[in-house]
Design a protein that fits this description.
- The complex is a heterodimer of chains A (161) and B (204).
- With 161 residues, chain A is α+β, with helices and mostly antiparallel strands.
- Chain A has a single domain, classed as 60s Ribosomal Protein L30, Chain: A.
- Helix content of chain A is 19%, strand content 37%.
- Chain A has two helices and ten strands.
- Chain A has a five-stranded mixed sheet with strand order 1-3-8-9-10, with no helix packed on it. A five-stranded mixed sheet of chain A has the order 2-5-4-6-7, covered by helices on one side.
- In chain A, strand 4 and strand 5 form a beta hairpin.
- By secondary structure, chain B is an alpha+beta fold.
- Chain B has a single domain, classed as 3-Layer(aba) Sandwich (Chemotaxis protein chec).
- In chain B, strands 1, 2, 3, 4, 5, 6, 7 and 8 form an eight-stranded antiparallel sheet that branches.
- The radius of gyration of chain B is 16 Å and the shape is globular.
- Classes of the chains: A alpha+beta (161), B alpha+beta (204).
- At the A-B interface, strand 3 of A face strand 3, strand 6 and helix 4 of B.
Chain lengths: 161, 204
């Protein structure tokens, strides 16, 4: 039975085949996975907010897209992944409650998605699959044996991206 | 200030008492609507790491119905009333005069009924809050979602996440006498609101 490694909110984990990294109950948060298909090394990052520069000081850099992603990237490279082979998949970024006068805070899901895409581009990592937006929660997992990224929802079942 | 906010034992007691009176009012309201006795526990007032908040309701992938209300006024914040799926269906059966077990999914009418319950609970809660603190606060119209607890709590946690790594939650659990309904009522003051509340209570 391959190891199931749980990634909490505002956290990230890296690992190598055979293992599955999983994060439960993402709303506006985003699960960013990295995977090197050759070495079968990867990581999963669960960010809450797009930008650390717009927040007060935090003890936890993994909470933000801009500070969390470089940490995960450095750790997968340390394990032996190659940056040029790494591919990314992302899911999450929902808006759970629809309000007519949604504030910026309510729309944080789409801002998270934009921030993640920007930082992937800056690091020249290909985004090969995406399942973001909507008004529903997601549980996401990446299987490091094959790089399959599973997105589970309560109403729309489970899909692989 | 929020992340280093240290409350004295007396201040925590004062918050607990506010939560107690607020939730007591809410429980009475709910009990009158469904004509059953509603018990509640002593409110938990605690500074909780953000990622631990979903564990208060059974973990991030527990399916719950959440009624969310924004609170406006001098001490703004959020109110979230969470019911495990089974409890929510049971409550709908009770409200709609159906047999228990009839509700297997929520239609618009059911959702509207649950939102109204959220509205009434929030109103009762904030009324008591006003009596205690003299801070007048108004709830927004309610919004409802049925989904994973982690995803629903995100809404509240994101705002706090911008200011720190912990959430001050005032949480009360409701239980109906027949055990059919158990719900969690959260009042999560915005960063900064806590100081206003504490100052209004005047406890050191």
């Amino acid at each position: 039975m391959p190891e199931l490694i749980r990634v909490g909110m505002a956290d990230y984990k890296v690992g190598k085949n055979p293992a599955t990294l999983i994060s439960y109950g993402l709303g506006s948060c985003i699960g960013v996975s990295l995977y090197d298909p050759q070495t079968k090394i990867g990581g999963l990052l669960h960010i809450m907010l797009p930008d650390s520069t717009q927040a007060r000081a935090s003890d936890n850099p993994a909470k933000f897209a801009d500070t969390g992603f470089p940490l995960m990237l450095a750790d997968v490279l340390k394990l032996g992944a190659s940056q040029s082979r790494l591919v990314a998949k992302i899911a999450g970024g929902a808006q759970m409650f629809a309000f007519a006068n949604a504030t910026d805070v309510m729309r944080v899901g789409s801002r998270n998605a934009e921030a993640v895409k920007k930082i992937l581009k800056e690091n020249r990592i290909r985004l090969i699959a995406e399942d973001t937006g909507g008004t529903y929660g997601r549980t996401v997992s990446i299987d490091l044996t094959n790089g399959v990224y599973k997105v589970k929802t309560i109403d729309k079942g489970e899909k692989e991206i | 200030m929020s992340e280093e906010f240290n409350l004295s034992a007396n201040q925590l007691d004062a918050l607990r008492e506010i939560g107690n009176v607020g939730a007591g009012n809410s429980a009475t309201a709910l009990s009158q609507i469904i004509n059953r006795r509603i018990d509640m526990n002593v409110p938990k007032v605690a500074l909780v790491p953000l990622d631990a908040v979903p564990d208060l309701v059974g973990g991030p992938d527990t399916i719950v119905v959440g009624v969310f209300l924004r609170v406006y006024g001098k001490a703004p914040g959020n109110i979230l009333f969470l019911l495990p799926q089974k409890s929510a269906y049971y409550l709908v059966d009770t409200l709609m005069g159906k047999n228990h077990g009839d509700t297997e999914k929520l239609d618009l009418m059911d959702e509207s009924a649950l939102m109204e319950i959220g509205n009434i609970l929030a109103g009762a809660y904030l009324n008591a809050f006003f009596t205690f603190t003299n801070i007048s606060m108004l709830p927004s119209i309610p919004a409802l979602a049925m989904d994973m607890a982690g995803a629903i709590l995100n809404v509240v946690l994101v705002q706090l996440g911008q200011m720190g790594d912990t959430a001050m939650v005032i949480e009360t659990e409701f239980l109906s006498e027949d055990d059919g309904i158990n719900g969690h009522f959260f009042l999560v003051p915005d960063p900064g609101s806590l100081e206003t509340i504490i100052a209004a209570v005047g406890v050191e």
